[in-house]
Write a structure and sequence with these properties.
Bound molecules: adenosine-5'-diphosphate
Number of helices: 12
Shape: rod-shaped
Radius of gyration: 53 Å
Distance between the termini: 61 Å
Strand content: 15-25%
Order of helices and strands: HHEEHEEHHHEEEHHHEHEEHEEHEE
Strand order of the largest sheet: 4-3-7-6-5
Helix content: 40-55%
Structural class: alpha+beta
Largest sheet: 5 strands, antiparallel
Number of strands: 14
Length: 519
């Protein structure tokens, strides 16, 4: 059973199938070439026999006379040649080997034993051929008839009782005086030709083609193995790759071929996987760290209440602090839930036509109170109206994050300004402040989850952000097929520029790849 399965797997393998198709094509090609050569050889041998028979016919016409026997008065064939001349004798003997002469009715005048063996042409056939070969008086057939025969030539193939083939050339011959046509046939054994053909094809089919096929298959097997070796290498490396050793890469062969391209693509895929894995690890580490802080806080507060609090006031204070930590916990959990929904594409944008000028104006009014509390001047520079096809709630969330960051990171006396501009191809929103700024080395990370620039806040406190706000901003911008860009000068201020496509951007959900979209 297992052997059968192994065999099936083997025959389904690419190497086997490549070799098999290669061998099949090779075999078909060889057989085709052999058949073609055999065909050409047979045709050329056939031509040769026809040629020899034509020559013998011409010679026969020189030596054979059909005359009336003066003594008997019967018409008989006579062979006129120098019997002393060995060449002439040989030629005549050769012609006479397979030879038949009859009158127009098919009555045999003379025939060789060999011809009798292969069968004398029946009178009906002879009569038919004589009729066909004899030109009708006054007809043009006379002119078109073969000059050396004076009549149509018939080529037939016959077999002797042993099955040996003969080619027969027959036509009419006129008697001396041109009184009546007679039927004469001469022939030649084809067995020699068939032998030559057999001698040619037998070793070809029995030895050369099988040997070439075996050799070709071995070569094909070897070449397919060589060509597929890197693929197996890729598979082996891929097998070794797991979550813990994503740093493995398959070395390219520097051949610049399709396989190198495959390896390169594969390596890039692992690279991306590794980055995602790394991010996931970092994320879970961050999440547990973020969750641990309020949990530790709650534990501390409860312990205080349990072991050291004496008065109701002290109990109340511990409870109040614990509640604040719980608030922060649920804030984190809510934000994480939302982010993971956005990430998995479950958060679908609910787009509608929104007047962004009005929306920003309302937000700015809402933020006047916290701005005043922080002694920060909040201003807006808006066109009378700016229509966009966006998700109102998400755009509000985005601007809320940017405005609250601006107010939070701007010292007293500073200012935060939001402006809106509409261009034919984009809508541009700018939120800028005169706050503490972000050092250049932190800029690439501010859109990462839980990332907070060190120094802008000490230990996490309820007032401090979660480090998730800009991750949302980033997702919202990308979900709207827009771009966000941040410029910042430490000590001078920060400017976020958002470019949104004005019309109905087609995609309503965008997967968060986790990669920062800071542009
Ligand atoms: P948080 O909730 O902590 O504000 P964000 O994701 O919104 O988290 O921001 C990430 C970090 O980027 C902040 O902790 C802060 O260090 C920095 N940051 C964001 N906006 C500003 C700003 N306008 N000025 C200075 N720093 C900023």
């Amino acid at each position: 059973m297992a052997a059968k399965r192994d065999f099936r797997r083997f025959t389904r393998g690419l190497r086997f199938r490549l070799t098999a198709s290669y061998a099949l094509i090779f075999a078909l090609l060889l057989i085709g070439v052999a058949a073609l050569v055999r065909e050409r050889l047979a045709a050329s041998l056939d031509n040769q026999v026809h040629e020899v028979l034509n020559q013998e016919w011409a010679a026969m016409k020189g030596y054979l006379r059909i005359e009336r026997n003066r003594r008997t008065g019967k018409v008989e064939p006579y062979w006129y040649y120098d019997r002393e001349d060995p060449d002439e004798s040989l030629i005549v003997r050769r012609i006479q080997r397979v030879y038949l002469a009859t009158d127009a009715d098919g009555n045999v005048l003379e025939s060789s034993t060999a011809y009798q063996d292969i069968g004398v042409d029946p009178p009906s056939v002879v009569q038919e051929r004589v009729r066909e070969a004899t030109p009708k008086k006054g007809s043009t057939a006379m002119a078109s008839a073969a000059p050396e025969t004076g009549g149509k030539v018939f080529w037939t193939e016959k077999r002797d009782p042993q099955g040996a083939p003969y080619l027969i050339r027959s036509s009419i011959v006129w008697d001396e005086g041109h009184h009546a046509p007679y039927y004469v046939a001469i022939g030649m054994a084809l067995s020699d030709n068939r032998g030559i053909l057999r001698d040619f094809t037998a070793p070809l089919y029995e030895m050369v083609i099988p040997a070439a096929l075996i050799l070709g298959s071995l070569l094909g097997w070897f070449m397919a193995g060589r060509a597929l070796a890197p693929v197996l290498g890729v598979a082996r490396t891929a097998q070794r790759i797991s979550g813990s050793n994503l740093s493995l890469r398959i070395p390219t062969r520097q051949a610049g071929d399709e396989l190198d391209y495959l390896i390169l693509t594969f390596n890039r895929m692992i690279e991306r996987l590794e980055a995602s894995f790394q991010q996931m690890k970092q994320f879970s580490a961050d999440v547990s760290h973020e969750l641990r802080t309020p949990i530790t806080g709650i534990r501390g507060q409860l312990e205080v209440a349990l072991f050291t609090a004496k008065s109701t006031e002290q109990y109340r204070e511990a409870m109040f602090n614990a509640l604040q930590d719980i608030d922060r916990l649920s804030q984190i959990v809510r934000a994480l839930l939302l982010l993971s929904q956005a990430e998995s594409g479950q958060l679908v944008l609910q787009k509608s036509h929104v007047d962004l000028s009005q929306l920003v104006q309302e937000l700015v009014e809402q933020f006047q109170i916290p701005a005043e509390a922080a002694a920060v001047q909040l201003t807006a520079d808006l066109p009378p109206s700016c229509s966009a096809y966006v998700d109102r709630v998400q755009i509000e969330r985005m601007l809320t994050n940017l405005l609250s960051n601006g107010i939070k990171f701007t010292p007293e006396g500073g200012s935060v300004r939001i402006s809106l501009q509409s261009f034919p191809e984009r809508i541009e929103m700018v939120v800028e402040d005169t706050g503490c700024g972000i050092p250049t080395e932190h800029l690439p990370h501010i859109f990462d989850r839980f990332y907070r620039v060190p120094g802008t806040g000490t230990a996490p406190s309820p007032e401090q952000g979660l480090g998730l706000g800009l991750s949302f901003v980033d997702w919202i911008v990308r979900a709207h097929r827009g771009k966000i860009h941040v410029d910042s000068t430490p000590g001078a201020g920060t400017r976020f520029t958002i470019k949104l496509p004005p019309g109905s951007a087609s995609l309503d959900t965008v997967e968060l790849s986790g990669q920062s979209a800071a542009l």
